[in-house]
Amino acid sequence: MDDPRGLLLTALAQRDKEMPELVRVDQYMRGTQDAPYIPKRAEAEFRRLVARALENWLPLIVAVVAQSLRVEGYRSTDRPEDLAAWGYWDANRLESRQNAVHRAALTFGIGYVRVTPGDTGPAIRPASPLSITGLAEDPDSEWLEAAIRTIGTVRRENRKLERWQVWDSRNVTEVLVPDGDHDLPGTWTVGESEPHGLSRCPIVPFRNRYADSPDTMPHELGEVSPLIPIQDRLNETTLNQKIAESYSAFRQRWATGISIPRDPRTGRPVETFRAAVDRMWMVENSDVKFGEFSQTDLTGYLASREAAVKAMSAIAQVPPHYLLGGMINIGEGALTAAESGLARKVHERQLMFGESWEQVLKLAAEADKRPEAAGDASARIVWHDAEARSLAATVDALGKLSTMLGVPPEALWERVPGVTSFDVQAWRKVRAETANYDLAAQLLTGQHTSDVDPAAA
To answer: What is the Cβ-side half-sphere exposure of residue 332, based on CA atoms within 13 angstroms?
Structure first.
């Protein structure tokens, strides 16, 4: 049995290095970002402008990719129907929960899914890297050697204790760690180890990308961390624009050669000139002069913001029109070309996450005592096709595949945009029922003939 104390010590050391940046990424995604520069003696009005200048673009970047990732089947290469292990997907409501896994991996660079035997079947639960830290000698290893999970805190004898679960290849163990004593394993309380029922660590990592260096931190592989500097630049530009709008984006008038009367009761200056469409300003002194200051041109601020958004779009491989709009009445070919970078990125993430989902379902089959499904090397994840294509053009292309190349129509149904695996199953059922009805009608009318020619017999 692995030593829970040693595993936890190693994992906590790794976690203490990773958490500051993971927390920072989480704060930026939630809108708690570094504010632009504020003078120490700034007034409340200026501070309100700073608060209004924070525009959070990062969740949109993650959402564009995450919304194109949807698993809709688990099939073998020689079977069009979903395998029996797909039942675990529906039982654990992963149709909706899968999005949390994909968003975590995209945001933080890594996400996790925990698989454990349950009373009514395998339990599959998504988990954030803020609560789980995985251990592996090889950072790119297919399976984790161990993982730790925080499950809150308790108070005993006026001491705050952190509760940790240590998952190794055979057991799960709870360890109580005094708050802040991550480097003092002698103060920890190790509980009884319980078998988790699987042959390996039951926590599966979902990597957004594989690391290029062993020193690479998880957040560096996510979609958010590289965009934080651009997000800060956008906030500064927006603040400068708000300042210009508030103080110099309108024409201010000036006058010389006049004295401003004051209220005899309050001593405050009395405004003598009010601008209106039906008012005229007149003075008796010929030496009085009126003029106005020109307003600040906001074009430069708007162009700077647009350039920063386009830079964010290029780095994230998200088409600019997802962020800025402005594409109206464009052709299908132009739209496909504009989204080609996003399509390639989505396909890459499907390859990465698909392998992990296959591991999850194989672990679930093992937890359900079904070794044949757990060892099925031909099973694969089927993804929903989210590419922007015209329905008419797609159906026309699929029809030509069937008529010109002889591809069976049933094999092409799932490639129709918007069609789910449930639709395909319903169509197959209707096709089978229709075929049976036609055969019965032929038998009743005497039109059905045997495969064997009576004359030849």
So the answer is: 8
